[in-house]
Amino acid sequence: MYLAPLRALCALLVVPAVLAAQTPDTLGGRPMSLRDAVAQAQDYSLLAVTARGQVRTAESGVRSAKGALLPSLSLSLGQVNQSGDRLDTQGRLVPYAAPQPWTYSTGLASTLNLFDGGRRLSDLRRAHFDVSSAEANEITQRFNVALQVKTQYYSILAAREAEGAALAQLQQAQEQLKTSIARTRAGVATLSDSLRSVIALGNARLALITARNNVRIASAALTRLIGSATPVTALPSDTLDLDLASVDSVSLAASLDQGPAVRQAQTQLESAHAVARSSRTAYLPSVDLTLSRSGNGYSQAYGLNGQPLAYTNNVSLRLSYALFNNYAREDAVTRASVNEDLADAGLRDARLAAQQTFVQQLGAIRTAQQRIVIQQASVDAAKEDLRVQQQRYALGASTLLDVLTSQSTLDGARSALIQARQDFRVARAQLEALVGHDLP
Question: Taking a C-beta distance cutoff of 8 angstroms, is the pair 41, 145 a contact?
Answer without folding.
Answer: yes
